C-alpha cells in the first residue's frame, strides 16, 4: 500500500478496480476520455470524459469498515451529466442523469 500526497491510502484493490472499470468503459465507449483517481488521465480533450474513484473511502475499506463505495461520473462538454454510486457491501446502487432525475436499487448481499 502506498499513500498519495494528501496521506490518503492507495491499495492494490484501488488500482485493480480502476483498471477493470477503465477497460470496461473503454471497450463500450472507445472515444471517451478517462480521469481516474488512481491511474491517471487519458484523452482529456474528448467531449465525453469518465471520472472514476474506484474505492471512495479507502481508509474504511482498509479497516474492513463497510463505509466505502465506487463513484463514476460522466462529464459531457464540460458539464456533469451522469453520476453513479455503488455501495457493494450494502447492495446499493444509486444514479442520477441530467434530465432524467435520480434512481436507485437495492440488491441483497451475499
- Please state the CA-atom Rg, rounded to the nearest Å: 14 Å
Span between N and C termini?
Answer: 27 Å
- Strand numbers in spatial order across the main sheet: 4-3-5-6-7-8-9
What structural class do you assign from the helix and strand content? alpha+beta
Q: Helix count? A: 2
Element order, helices and strands?
Answer: EEHEEEHEEEE
Overall form: globular
> What is the helical fraction, as a range of percent?
10-25%
What share of residues are in beta strands? Answer: 35-45%
Number of β-strand runs = 9
Q: What integer is the average pLDDT?
A: 90
Largest sheet: 7 strands, mixed
| Poorly predicted runs | none
Summarize, please.
By secondary structure, the chain is of the alpha+beta class. The chain contains two helices and nine strands. The chain is globular and about 40 Å long.
Give a structural overview.
With 110 residues, the chain is α+β, with helices and mostly antiparallel strands. 20% of the residues lie in helices and 45% in strands. It has helices at residues 12-28, 58-62; strands at 2-3, 9-10, 33-36, 40-42, 48-56, 69-76, 79-87, 92-97, 101-106. The chain is globular, with a radius of gyration of 14 Å.
Can you tag this structure with a few keywords?
110 residues, alpha+beta, seven-stranded mixed sheet, 2 helices, 9 strands, globular
Amino acid at each position: 500500500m502506498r499513500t498519495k500526497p494528501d496521506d490518503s491510502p492507495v491499495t492494490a484493490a484501488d488500482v485493480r478496480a480502476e483498471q477493470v472499470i477503465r477497460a470496461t468503459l473503454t471497450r463500450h465507449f472507445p472515444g471517451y476520455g478517462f480521469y481516474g483517481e488512481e491511474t491517471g488521465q487519458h484523452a482529456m480533450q474528448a467531449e465525453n470524459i469518465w471520472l472514476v474513484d474506484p474505492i471512495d473511502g479507502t481508509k474504511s475499506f482498509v479497516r474492513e469498515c463497510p463505509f466505502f463505495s465506487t463513484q463514476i461520473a460522466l462529464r459531457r462538454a464540460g458539464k456533469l451529466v451522469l453520476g453513479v454510486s455503488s455501495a457493494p457491501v450494502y447492495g446499493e446502487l444509486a444514479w442520477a442523469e441530467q434530465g432524467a432525475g435520480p434512481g436507485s436499487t437495492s440488491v441483497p448481499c451475499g
